[in-house]
Amino acid sequence: MKFFPRHGRTATALAASVLIGAGVLTASLTSASANPPQHSSTPLYVAAGPKPTVVLVHGAWADGSSWSGEIAQLQHLGYPVAVAPQPGRGPASDSEYLRDYLAAITGPIVLAGHSYGGFVITDAATGNPNVKALVYIDAFAPDQGESIGSLTAGSGSILEPALTNPASVLRLTGYPGAPAGAGDSYVLPQTFATGFANDLPRNKAALLAATQTPFATGGFSEPSTTPAWKTIPSWALISRQDKVIPPHSQKLMSARAHAHVTEIDGSHLSLISQPDQVTRVIVKAATTTR
């Protein structure tokens, strides 16, 4: 399916590019650095002895600084931490990139993904014996053949207006040298503030919206491959105020993956607003799968 014309790209043509599959877009994003973590009075349990490497995968329209709060806490607890770059070109390319990245890490790995990052880790970890646990943070956990579009169709996502008016929630652009039908997308600031960062201060939400990285429109229709959660134990953190991947959708995906679920009161960007809670789930996965 072509999403962008080769010549004469208009706002209408760009908007049409995101009517993928059932016509519903999704978002999996965050960006920029987190606020300093607010530590809970309840201590984290950390087992003695060698610790696995924690590899963190950010969502679309984001960068690695999304995990700043978790990185600080995990390093303080003695965990080796790596933040995997995620190019935002779509599941096929991004999962292959992560697969190669993980192959260069020796020893056990706990692999955590936020939002779209969950889609990427589900494909990339399959067949890697070093990956001992998958951690989904307000994330997609697709089954084989599912796409971002199919998982969000009819879900009640903040981006469902894209079905009739994509430009109401997304800014769509081309990029130099793009193949026919390809383009990039960004979330509009107002949608970002009310739909993704709804438990963050407005000035913080504005900063995150302004520092987005692009996500390729073609990525919304690419299908998942054999899911790693069929053979690797998984954990999930679900935020009750998530408007991007609604909680009921996350619960369905978590149930079929037999994930250990933790629910919190938070937005889609819980990794920024509540790094303490997110770190606890990651540490629990790390200590349980030793």
CATH class of one domain: Alpha Beta
How is the CATH topology of one domain named?
A: Rossmann fold
Oligomer: single chain
By CATH, the superfamily of one domain comes out as: Alpha/Beta hydrolase fold, catalytic domain
Structural write-up:
This protein has 290 residues and is an alpha/beta fold. The chain has a domain at 49-156 and 222-288: 3-Layer(aba) Sandwich (Rossmann fold). The chain has 10 helices and 9 strands. The chain has helices at residues 11-16, 68-76, 91-103, 116-124, 148-152, 189-196, 202-210, 247-256, 270-273, 275-288; strands at 53-57, 81-84, 109-114, 131-137, 170-173, 184-187, 215-216, 234-239, 260-264. The strands form 2 sheets. The chain has a 6-stranded parallel sheet, with helices on both faces. It has a 3-stranded antiparallel sheet with strand order 5-6-7. Helix 8 (247-256) links the parallel strand 8 (234-239) and strand 9. The protein is globular, with a radius of gyration of 18 Å. The model is unreliable at 1-45 (pLDDT under 50).
Write the layout of secondary structure elements.
Layout (H helix, E strand, L loop, with lengths): L10 H6 L36 E5 L10 H9 L4 E4 L6 H13 L5 E6 L1 H9 L6 E7 L10 H5 L17 E4 L10 E4 L1 H8 L5 H9 L4 E2 L17 E6 L7 H10 L3 E5 L5 H4 L1 H14 L2
Parallel strand pairs: 1-2, 1-3, 3-4, 4-8, 8-9
Antiparallel strand pairs: 5-6, 6-7
Helix pairs in contact: 2-10, 3-4, 6-7
Give a short synopsis of this structure.
By secondary structure, this protein is α/β, with parallel strands linked by helices.
